[in-house]
């Protein structure tokens, strides 16, 4: 139960806090990066590795990089 409640409450809290200082489209774009990074971490942590098609993840990560480059 704690695995469902804690990340959900913490995640929503962090998203709401980030909306105070960042534009909503930027926050939304970074929410797309969450499953990509979670998949990457799972791929690195587990010993059973299969060929992964990372083109979609590369597009999302590239978009995140572009947003950060324009912001800075």
Structural commentary:
The chain has about 70 residues and is mostly helical. It has a domain at about 20-70. Helices cover about 80% and strands about 0% of the residues. Helix 2 (about 25-45) crosses helix 3. The termini are far apart.
Q: What's the number of extended β-strand segments? A: 0
Average of per-residue pLDDT values: 79
Category from helices, strands and their pairing: mainly alpha
Distance between the termini: 40 Å
Order of helical and strand elements = HHH
Q: What general form does the structure show?
A: flat
Largest sheet: none
Quickly count the helices: 3
Estimated share of beta-strand residues: under 5%
Rounded to an integer, what's the Rg over CA atoms?
15 Å
Low-confidence stretches: none
Helix % is over 70%
Mind sketching the topology for me?
Elements: H1 2-19, H2 24-45, H3 55-71
Helix pairs in contact: 2-3
Nutshell version of this structure?
This protein is mainly alpha-helical and 72 residues long.
Features:
72 residues, mainly alpha, 3 helices, flat
């Amino acid at each position: 139960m704690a695995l469902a409640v804690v990340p959900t409450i913490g995640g929503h809290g962090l998203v709401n806090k980030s909306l105070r200082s960042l534009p909503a489209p930027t926050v939304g774009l970074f929410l797309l990066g969450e499953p990509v990074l979670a998949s990457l971490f799972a791929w690195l942590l587990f010993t059973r590795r299969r060929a992964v098609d990372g083109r979609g993840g590369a597009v999302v990560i590239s978009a995140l990089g572009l947003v950060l480059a324009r912001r800075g």
